[in-house]
Input
Amino acid sequence: MVGPLRKILLIDDDRMQFRLTQAHFKTFRGERYELEWASTYEEGMEKLLSGLHDACLLDYQLGERNGLQLIQEAVGAGCRTPIVFLTAETAERVDIEAMNAGALDYLVKGEITPRNLERSLRYALKLGETLEALRRLATRDQLTGLLNRREFERILTEEEERSMRFGHSLALVMVDIDHFKQVNDTHGHPVGDVVLREVARRVAGQVRTVDRAVRFGGEELALILVQTNRAGAMDVARRVCAVVSHDPVVVNDTLSLKVTVSAGAAELPRDAKSGPSLLNAADKALYAAKARGRNRAVAYDEI
Output
């Protein structure tokens, strides 16, 4: 059975290298690959950061700049595409620098054959998948698939610094499932897990791609909303409450449960001066929502 077509990006200022690589690809015996070419540093960076390629072949010499700089810049911008470094030099220093910068493998141009090129691509793709799986385990909550508490703390610190530097507002919404202990006590933890997963899915669906949805702990979720003020955070918090309560959570053919959540919202810098104090403010607003009857959103300034 033929596998899916893999898209490979070649970043090289030499058209002959593109033609040669194309010829090598036609002799591959394993997976199917489609080669796309970028001839400049800028074009290569743009295409690499698009996330549309399964792997990248990157030349060392790219005009006035080089592939090492491109790897470092791309990785710094969050690029996770596996990169195979191509160099005309056999100097060990260049090879080591490329691997240290983030390349998963390297090939010396004068020694490239269809066989070792295919092997290198296969190795980089497999290692890239393994690293992505490990990264997901380290940053994601296993049950809900949302970001975990450790990532929450890292991102909140990062966004706090960005907010202070550029003068943007930063909002936080804390969400808690109402009477969740009763669900576990009455129906068991497996049912509670189903409820938590579905609530997490509905809540995460209410934020933009630039925002972050987190399982903060237990049945408590958090939404980090970038460049969002308190009013915008309250809009999100109200939508979250509405979307969770709108339809019962279907556990199985015989059991559906009516579920609601409470939410608290706060904004940096109006309600807090730091990430930890923003969390404290949103938490206080959440507890106020609980105290006022649940299934509602409360802003910090409404306490």
Summary: The chain has a mean pLDDT of 92.
